[in-house]
Amino acid sequence: MLIEAIIHSERNPTMSSPATQQPTPQLFFQTINSYQRTEALKAAIELDVFTAIGEGNSAVPEIAERCQTSERGMRILCDYLCIMGFLAKDGGRYSMTQDSAVFLDKRSPAYLGGAIDFLLSPMLTDGFKDLAAAVRKGGAVISEEGVVAPEHPIWLCEFCARDGPDDGDAFAVDGQTGGRKGGSKSEDS
Fold first, then answer.
1. pLDDT tens for residues 103-112?
2. Which structural domain, as residue segments, surrounds residue 149?
3. 53: Cβ–Cβ under 8 A, 6 or more apart, which residues?
4. Which of 25, 28, 148, 185 to pair with 3, CA 20 to 30 A apart?
5. pTM of whole model > 0.70?
């Protein structure tokens, strides 16, 4: 959310000009509530919402049945995903945005959903739970090296174990499809 506000202020110079804009708590509330966006996206990935929609399930009853959820819960989640820009809604039917189709449908070669196991792991996020203490200390409060220690368990996750670009698993996006070039270790082994 903070990055979005910065980008918006760069596009709209009047937003950052104190003389032309009244004070607003918008940035405060966007930032303090950004965990809701993260958790909603995480839930959608864990429930396979994007893959379900990519398979042709576009109405709430279909998506809920495919994802084994309540219809009410799925409707709320899908509506929030629309607000965030991950889904589009036309009447009672949901569809993926181009970015969601490329990066959040498990059938896509450029699927990024598996990254949540790494990016949202407690070993990584715990270092931000008491950031004030880290600032006071001048370094990580979770251990001397934080998660940068070469043998830290966080580097053993499936997402991190993928081959690097030199091994034929470049995570580079091609300009046409957004697809990943090459295969992963788990696919080749």
1. 999 999 999 9
2. 114-188
3. 63, 87, 94, 95, 96, 105
4. 148
5. no
